[in-house]
Design goal:
mainly alpha; about 0% strand; DNA-binding; homodimer; 10 helices
Chain lengths: ~220, ~220
DNA sequence: TCGTTTCCTGACCGTATGGTCAAATCACAG
DNA sequence: CTGTGATTTGACCATACGGTCAGGAAACGA
């Protein structure tokens, strides 16, 4: 009896798996190296070593260093967008903004490298993701400003400038990733413990939510 | 009659002036280039072009790229330390912390390049200024934590974690320099006006001071 | 004016880097 | 097993970069 014909087109399952896995390994290594050395300081050789692959293999999957970098940055932006959705569907600022802070702090903890790559990209004038800033980010920002303004109009929070509130949310949460090394140094060269992370989250939420009159 | 002997040792006034001026021009150009390209992406040739000097002349004043970079980072740290003194001598959190926010926002506005270089340096693990983090910054931080704790004990503000408050102060104020390009893009590709800067300062101060119960 | 020190700079060098390529290997279908 | 196309990789190349150096120009003291 011949093997059952696969209905789902698994066909070249092995090859697909190889490609998926190698791209993942390369992207992980690239994210680290780009974060630790910047785009200019990163070398394909270093990324290759960290990925455990020959350099020429990287160029097989990603034609150029810049193409690899673009993929890394895009991945981060998608993660960021996922967290951004936390904002939606909340009835009041305490849950909406509080949940957003939680989500972004969690990203800072789980994706510190990605956050640093994003920060460096923006600091250098966003040469690669300028269009995202002008379209997706701008739209998202405008939408969230409307939501906040509505909360203000409904008397659910103090009349602050929604735009600057958003900047403060981004700044405070991403700081724990981008300046994680500084925080760690000031913590006696120790990474923040679970307890300290909870404390950080609580501090940020308390100060900001009380600051906007939502507590 | 021979010229009056200069009591003040002006002696080689011209040469001193040349050196001072050239170092200034080079450091200004270096700060810009390091901020816009990162240490790895910056080239001595680019810095030389921006300074309007031949590349070999840079190496006359600064032996290596790293030596030049160190000087840039140290300059920024000194500016930062100046602003940090604003904290001292304040009787209550509203003036102490409010003044500190004002000072740091002013730095973000006047030295955006320097702030970015500092941020990139820390993000990459502070390879050059790690000792500063462990000594000067740690001491300053501990001192300020004491001051804040005293204010809390005196009932002048809410009982928050002073350390995380400091992180929030750094994050929110430096964000306006480090992510200035993003802010500018979201502002319709326009730099913040005087009015908008005042609004930013006021927003940050209002939210944070109310957030810590000092208003 | 003259000797000395500092400053300036075009030409040059060794190395590291991003990227290419052709040959070998492997997965897969028939 | 065989043919085909995807994958792997060591060797290689052109370029760009940090840094050097020798020789000339300018500033300075006497």
């Amino acid at each position: 009896m011949p093997p059952l014909a696969q209905v789902t087109p698994i066909k070249t399952a092995r090859r697909t798996e190889i490609r998926r896995e190698n791209e993942r390994v390369i992207l992980d290594a690239a994210e680290r190296v780009f974060a630790e050395a910047g785009f200019g300081g990163a070398t394909m050789q270093l990324i290759a070593d960290m990925a455990g692959l020959p350099k020429a293999n990287l160029h097989y999957y990603f034609p150029t260093k810049e193409a690899l970098y673009r993929r890394v940055v895009q991945n981060i932006f998608e993660i960021w967008l996922d967290a951004a959705s936390t904002f939606d569907g909340a009835e009041d600022p305490a849950t909406g903004i509080g949940g957003y802070i939680d989500a972004k702090m969690e990203i800072s903890r789980r994706h510190p490298h990605g956050s640093k790559v994003w920060a460096a990209e923006v600091m250098q004038g966003a040469p690669v993701i300028q269009d995202y800033l002008e379209t997706t980010l701008k739209d998202w920002t405008d939408g969230r400003i409307s939501v906040i303004q509505r909360w203000i109009d409904q008397g659910k929070m103090a009349p602050i400038n929604p735009r600057h509130l958003l900047y403060m949310l981004w700044a405070t949460t991403q700081h724990y990733a981008d300046f994680g090394h500084q925080i760690e140094t000031l913590n006696g060269a120790q990474p923040l413990s679970d307890r300290q992370w909870r404390d950080a989250k609580a501090s940020v939420k308390t100060i900001l939510l009380r600051g906007i009159g939502a507590l």
